[in-house]
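Q: Can I see a sequence and its folded structure?
A: Here is a first one.
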Amino acid sequence: MRSQELYLKAASTVNLLKEKGLTISSAESCTGGMFSSYVTSVSGVSDIFEMGITSYSCKVKNEMLGVKAETLKKFGAVSENTAREMAENIRKKANSDIGVAVTGVAGPAASEGHPMGYVFIAVADKNRCETKLLNIEPRDREFVRQSACISLFETIENFVKQDDYGTV
């Protein structure tokens, strides 16, 4: 049943972005490409989706996504700072209007001293970046990943609706 909810959230987000004439790119870690998978399951998504990178290692976060080595060392891969840099940098790398990121602990074990379900999401455009800490009920790994994606879709929609993006 959750897969249907995810598809509906993805379709709603894709349609809003199309309506506003905005493009999006994603940088994912703990969701393992789930966000990109659901976005690209929506017909007509090629109008708005530029690229997605799944980056589990700090090396890839640094080398491919441009997260500063200092950020990763000081705050860790699971941090607000890392999520912010992932979102801002994927937006720039893809030359998209919006960049989104998700990094956290899907479980079942803790990571970097954080419990399962501890996830940061970020949504950025050229002027601002909104980050959120999610403390997702740690039912199981799939539940954490799905919940993070649902929250990310909702955050994107709220982010777009609160700004003065025109309709094309």
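Q: Show me another, different protein.
A: A second, unrelated one:
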Amino acid sequence: MIKVLKSNYIYLILSFIVVVGFFLRSSGIFSNSFAFTYDVGRDLLAVRDLVVNHKISLIGATTGKEGIFYGPVWYWILAFPFIISSGNPQMIALFMAFCGILVVPIGYFLGEKIHGKFLGLTLAAFFSFSPVMIGVSSQIWNPNLIPLFVIILLSLLIQESLRSKKTFFVIGLLLGVILELEIVFGILLIVATGIYVLCTGNLKQKILQFFIFLAGIILVLFPKIIFDIRHNFLMTRSFFSLFNGPFSEKLGLSFLSNFPQRLQVLFNLFSDSLTNSNKYLAFYLLALCFVILIYFRKKLSGTQKKELQIIFITLLTFLIGLSFFSHDIWSHYIIGLPVYFILTITVTVDIMSKNFKQKKAAILLVVVILTINFNPVLFLRGIRSPLWEGNSAVYRNQLAVIDYVYNDTDGEKFSYVAYTPPIHDYTWQYLFLWYGQKKYHYVPSKVTEKLFYLILEPDYERPSRLKDWLEIRKNDGKIIKEQVVKGGIVVQTRIH
């Protein structure tokens, strides 16, 4: 038994890292404390149409720019956990947590293959305990899958397999999927990867790789291309119209003034990813990386140089690309960059371990970073703290509203109207269809019934909108009672 433990201690440590990391990502999911927002409801309604009603769409949700849509890839991915769980949002959220923690063992095997077991565990631990990596693994949202695809992409790029045509085709597929999960991040990553590819190999090889690479991306985009052709190139025309309207004025006119702010954005993300938002520690850690990488630049191995080339080209591409945008940089634009930051620190630790001949110093640095990110005292305190109620976007609170309505009806037919700040009530549509049918075996009527309910989410940003909305409906039936359920959600019981 002792021999078995000694020979497998690395995998025992890795298992511990994975289990703790999964707990950090899933504890809020098991208590139904995750966010269930209107866009999640919209996506699950679309997946329900795909799985239950067999309605196949060539496009997904809108990108926020009129006439430009995502492809259906996100819906196809969600279809798997949807089928397995019969549409249970909690299980779908657990699928997201599983995808998030899958980065950890992939990171280990990548680090172990190119740096050794110690660095493999280091990379795995950083991925597991990074606050940003934990945060993007706990919610149902399409950009949150990007870190998983990024670490797979990096594994293919870093390892000695770039001469394989199949590998380049897979890289293209991965980039296409990433583009369909988040368009800004995807475009910049495609540019960065393309630049890296053009910097390696001979000319003939580069041209062949380019077309194979492009074929993989086009295959993922194919449903959207068919949609565009069938609709008179709607998306193509919408895309080019961006450069003729107000949006074009936001590009390139303020690059120099934006550059320092974008640099600050990337630094803040580095701090959030590795020093738990401690800016001073982040600065010292960056300075240490810079000094070590510059001082030992001539002693870098071929693999270390390749890693640093990929990291440098990618981060520089994002810094320059984002500087052309004059509007705010949202978190999903840079959602996969923590993977590159963590890889940078791992390379630095590897160099310290091999060139300083001071493995203890490298281990100490790893322990310090991990302790900053995973504070055992705060972790235990968080377990003992009472359950957080949250607001109207918390899934648990929404289920409480559904239960309240059905218990109040006592089996009688009813209809409902919901006020939500985003206007659309996709959340309530889905929950009544799934949870209402599953637990109470019937759903609200589509026609107005004698008994009906007003579900009122608080509108903290513009409370006057809710007041005006209620004023319009003041004569819509008689208010029998009003109840504040959870998360500030008010339910009015009315009869005609």
